[in-house]
């Protein structure tokens, strides 16, 4: 299938093939990874190797912990204010789409939060300009969403918030391009787009933040407990972490983060070019300066054409091109594991469809 699903999304074929080979007898243990004790040396190797490969790929500095937790990106929306919002403090949220809204709504349950900036009035076609961001020096943190999966926008440059901890939801673009981890106090991402299967959430967190966290919260929701126990406080999602580790090895084999970025740019360009060269037959949702390399959102000149486009695309083997139910239109998610050839097939299909229907 030409898989453009927004998440869970395509996994690299070589990783799936390896997992299939190793499914029953993992590295001569006579057991599946799923059957290993999470306290066994064989599993601990898998676990630690995944952490160390993520550190390498993203150049994560020593003063950050890499954690694997559960509950998806969505549980992070609650864990962040629970851990870091203290009485008398505020936290600022930058509103760039549906996931930022969800994070903001959840944070209201825990304390005093406010909107730093919002692009909602323009139907989230862009991210705010960095100069517009107004927050307080005393804020517990500022939260942003680096890539807006539903609207198809992405930050190209991040604000430097100085002493105010900057927390980023990178669920839909982590590992797609180099980032300066030291600009952030915390980064989190559900694995199911660029890193592996759903069920694992990666948290990259600066150690000093852990020390400041609230203490009177449930044990499993404390970042500190997971950090102290190398994400082995309870039974982690071992099979998911194994697959995530194999995705990271695959990414390293491709040449690492710069190679991934280059490939992602080339893939997205194929589809944006089909939009831009269509004389308005296709219209991109995002403003060009905020366009995402991961989720390409567009509409067709009218609803009937759009319906036909989606139906014919489905027939031709394209999967997941319907826009999110909240915005409609079309969306092609071109995460790391989506091959260049798959994007080429879509851009050719778009050009051909326009020829016949334009
Ligand atoms: N944040 C972003 C940017 C997302 O795209 C998603 C899911 O698509 C989420 C958070 C929610 O993640 P989860 O389904 O893992 O809770």
Automatic annotation (TrEMBL):
<protein>
    <recommendedName>
        <fullName>Phosphoserine aminotransferase</fullName>
        <ecNumber>2.6.1.52</ecNumber>
    </recommendedName>
</protein>
<dbReference type="GO" id="GO:0030170">
    <property type="term" value="F:pyridoxal phosphate binding"/>
</dbReference>
<dbReference type="InterPro" id="IPR015422">
    <property type="entry name" value="PyrdxlP-dep_Trfase_small"/>
</dbReference>
<feature type="binding site">
    <location>
        <position position="169"/>
    </location>
    <ligand>
        <name>pyridoxal 5'-phosphate</name>
    </ligand>
</feature>
<feature type="binding site">
    <location>
        <position position="99"/>
    </location>
    <ligand>
        <name>pyridoxal 5'-phosphate</name>
    </ligand>
</feature>
<keyword id="KW-0963">Cytoplasm</keyword>
<feature type="modified residue" description="N6-(pyridoxal phosphate)lysine">
    <location>
        <position position="193"/>
    </location>
</feature>
<keyword id="KW-0028">Amino-acid biosynthesis</keyword>
<comment type="pathway">
    <text>Amino-acid biosynthesis; L-serine biosynthesis; L-serine from 3-phospho-D-glycerate: step 2/3.</text>
</comment>
<feature type="binding site">
    <location>
        <begin position="73"/>
        <end position="74"/>
    </location>
    <ligand>
        <name>pyridoxal 5'-phosphate</name>
    </ligand>
</feature>
<keyword id="KW-0718">Serine biosynthesis</keyword>
<feature type="binding site">
    <location>
        <position position="192"/>
    </location>
    <ligand>
        <name>pyridoxal 5'-phosphate</name>
    </ligand>
</feature>
<comment type="subunit">
    <text>Homodimer.</text>
</comment>
<comment type="similarity">
    <text>Belongs to the class-V pyridoxal-phosphate-dependent aminotransferase family. SerC subfamily.</text>
</comment>
<dbReference type="Pfam" id="PF00266">
    <property type="entry name" value="Aminotran_5"/>
</dbReference>
<feature type="binding site">
    <location>
        <position position="149"/>
    </location>
    <ligand>
        <name>pyridoxal 5'-phosphate</name>
    </ligand>
</feature>
<comment type="function">
    <text>Catalyzes the reversible conversion of 3-phosphohydroxypyruvate to phosphoserine and of 3-hydroxy-2-oxo-4-phosphonooxybutanoate to phosphohydroxythreonine.</text>
</comment>
<keyword id="KW-0032">Aminotransferase</keyword>
<feature type="domain" description="Aminotransferase class V">
    <location>
        <begin position="2"/>
        <end position="341"/>
    </location>
</feature>
<dbReference type="InterPro" id="IPR000192">
    <property type="entry name" value="Aminotrans_V_dom"/>
</dbReference>
<keyword id="KW-0808">Transferase</keyword>
<dbReference type="InterPro" id="IPR022278">
    <property type="entry name" value="Pser_aminoTfrase"/>
</dbReference>
<dbReference type="GO" id="GO:0005737">
    <property type="term" value="C:cytoplasm"/>
</dbReference>
<feature type="binding site">
    <location>
        <position position="39"/>
    </location>
    <ligand>
        <name>L-glutamate</name>
    </ligand>
</feature>
<dbReference type="InterPro" id="IPR015424">
    <property type="entry name" value="PyrdxlP-dep_Trfase"/>
</dbReference>
<keyword id="KW-0663">Pyridoxal phosphate</keyword>
<feature type="binding site">
    <location>
        <begin position="234"/>
        <end position="235"/>
    </location>
    <ligand>
        <name>pyridoxal 5'-phosphate</name>
    </ligand>
</feature>
<dbReference type="GO" id="GO:0004648">
    <property type="term" value="F:O-phospho-L-serine:2-oxoglutarate aminotransferase activity"/>
</dbReference>
<dbReference type="InterPro" id="IPR015421">
    <property type="entry name" value="PyrdxlP-dep_Trfase_major"/>
</dbReference>
<dbReference type="GO" id="GO:0006564">
    <property type="term" value="P:L-serine biosynthetic process"/>
</dbReference>
